Amino acid sequence: MKYPTRFLELIEDFKKLPGIGKKTAERLALHVITTMDDETVLKFSNDLTAIKKEITNCPVCGVLQEAACPICSDTTRDQETLMVLSEVKDVFVLERTNIYHGNYHILGGSIDFSRGVMPEDLNMDGLFKRLEGVSEVILSLNGTVEGELTSNYIKEMLKDKPIKVTRIAYGIPVGSDLSYADDQTIFRALENRRKYE
Amino acid sequence: MKYPTRFLELIEDFKKLPGIGKKTAERLALHVITTMDDETVLKFSNDLTAIKKEITNCPVCGVLQEAACPICSDTTRDQETLMVLSEVKDVFVLERTNIYHGNYHILGGSIDFSRGVMPEDLNMDGLFKRLEGVSEVILSLNGTVEGELTSNYIKEMLKDKPIKVTRIAYGIPVGSDLSYADDQTIFRALENRRKYE
Which intervals hold domain Toprim (chains A, B) (predicted)? Predict the structure, then answer.
């Protein structure tokens, strides 16, 4: 039997999502056709189209924003503390724990010489330009070689400035991604942050 | 931090898919925003909208079709054998094994008195109307109480007709869904089908 073309196309769409293989993609596409009502599918489709238009990265800190950045526009946050993260998704992990109330700065990756990712490919300039009034920079990068390298680079760049540079403590399992850490680990790691020298 | 509304909406959309919980839905929605390019997301969105319009169920056998039914319009298939299935998705399992070449008839469920699903709620009339020229009806329903009940009902309805009624053999684990069976199990079950009496 020849499968309907659009069905095969939708399977391919689902396969592009992380952690979704061929079998799961088939199951999801079938569910869309046979079980979901028209309205639900239409809403899903509209949300997909709209999200790329409506949601952008804040030009200052890199956090996802709709109209205004939910972090930068929140004046109740501690303006003297700036946390450096490698990815947008890490903000969600931190905000979920509700223990950090300073600002964020997202680099958009880590330095990785083997893949040709240099400091100038990341949002480093943006970081160095927004340090006025900042008394502490907390480096919350991944516990990987690349995260280490990036932390080290930033520490070196800031060494002559009157800013305390701390690093999130190694509660994060070494070699793993920050976004896999549970709330408790994040909490401990943040509590135990130490001066980075 | 307040999450962007559209982001929360997309998470809800993903959560409506089978096997996708809150955490996975968040991860998928984030991937759409941060990693997928606009073109890929737009195609995904378009495929979702289009699929409900383009793909329908064949009014005769119930198989998914685009323009014409891929099963009914295929005259090379054995027109004397008709396999009864409970769900559309079961066709994909059977066709994948490539060992059955007759026609299909999809009931759209199983008789289930506890949930008020009666024979008249299923496509039974359609089945009894398309038996001309059919010499064998193969019942490939789920190995559940409901599947058993439905097989039994059809057997009773056909007992006075000159049609051989067989049932797929119990290679399918008892109590499980047909769509979870692997190819080999399906193969064995079909090879060992026996007259249902």
Answer: 80-173
pLDDT tens, position by position, A83-107 = 999 988 888 878 877 788 899 999 9
Each residue's pLDDT tens digit, A133-182: 999 999 888 877 888 899 999 999 998 999 989 877 666 565 666 666 66
Residue type, B16: K
How far does the CA of residue B160 sit from the closest CA of chain A (Å)?
Answer: 33
**Is A1 within 8 Å of B90 (Cβ atoms)?**
no
Q: Which residue of B has its CA nearest to A3?
A: B70
Per-residue pLDDT at B84 exceeds 90: yes
Which chain B residue has the Cα nearest residue A7?
Answer: B51
Whole-number mean pLDDT of chain B?
85
Q: Is the ipTM of this complex over 0.85?
A: no
pLDDT at A170: 61
Rg of chain B (C-alpha set): 21
Q: For residue B29, give how far its alpha carbon lies from the nearest alpha carbon of chain A (Å).
A: 9
Touching B: A residues 54-83, CB under 8 Å = 54-55, 63-66, 70-71, 74
**Of residues B38, B47, B92, nearest to A10 (C-beta):** B47
The answer to whether residues B110 and B177 touch, using CB atoms and an 8 Å cutoff, is no
Strand partners, A103: A82
Evaluate if residue A73 carries a pLDDT over 80.
Answer: yes
- What are the chain B neighbours of A72 within 8 Å (beta carbons)? none
Q: Which class for A15: exposed (0-12), middle (13-18), buried (19 or more C-beta within 10 A)? A: middle
